[in-house]
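Predict the 3D structure for this chain.
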Amino acid sequence: MQNPIIIIGTGLAGYTTAKEIRKRDQSTPLLMITQDRGRYYSKPMLSTACAQNKTIDALTLSDADQMAANLSAEIHTQSVIKRIDIQNKKIIMDDAAFNFSKLILACGAKTNKLSIGGDAVSQVYSINDLTRYEDFHKKLSQSKKIVIIGAGLIGCEFANDLCSAGHAVTIISPDTHPMRRMLPKPIAEMLSHRLTAAGVNWIFNDAADEVNQQRNGFEVTLKSGERLDADIVISAIGIRSNTAIAEAAGIAVNHGVMTDEFLQTNKADIYALGDCAEIAGQVRQFVAPIMHASKALAATMCGESTAVQFPIMPVVVKTPDCPVVLVPPAHEMEGEWQYAMDADHAVAKFMNEQGSLSGFILLGKKAIAQRMALMQMM
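Done. Predicted structure below.
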């Protein structure tokens, strides 16, 4: 009997790869293993679901049984893998073991942990999956004041969404402006002003020090000594690749599970993609690269060795009161930003040392209309 292709993880990377394999091959056994309930949904929608009052049932596109039937696959949910036996090509679990012909790591990412004190840190929400969203959504209907720790992309998206749903939102950040790693200061300040007009309260140049339980909610104490009352506290301080199981097995890990352009790790017949992977030296934690990697890997799984090629992939920041689209320049590329800005719109172009366009940021609907033209220039 043929050993299956095993996919660890049923997020977007795992399920999309399984779908792409099935487009090419309907007979090779597929086995998927996940620690959660295996529901198929769009994780990016979690940060924009509150204003529409979406429940987890509304966000779920298919449950694990439906996905198993659609994919002609065996799916083990709420299952914990103890280790990967590379020598014998086997997955070891508490109550079972499975041999594999090829193994795909699609383990996703974990939220970064807050390094703060207080007796209620465990009650701070990090909303990175449906289970945490479900708990959060149930409490949200009884809550007014929301404190978000972190002013990155996810923090901004949640803030805009929660304000639209009628909540009072405060964002705390040690930075001087939002989305510091992605936006230059002039654009970030426009985003900040527009979201302020939408109802977001910002506290920059400060950080959370403690979160403590109060009779009717929580108290967030800042490094400066300021104290904030909150019904809910959200941590939005980023994610990191989930590499523990790979590292324990001796698979090469850096910022993510290291692969070449074929998604191959340093171990034969073991591959990785999605939020857990560092592909040819770069972690790409957005939807578009996952879709491209899934197609390439499926071709490789079906006997057609295919390197993944990433086109220009704009990042869409889901802040409806101040829409933003960006193509960041390559990391550490030398050059400068050039700006064209008015009260409601902004276009920022990153020109490299040779004078060529190597990245851009568009803020506002009128500016975003230039996206395709700028992509063609790159």
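The chain has three domains: 5-110+240-301, 113-235, 323-377.
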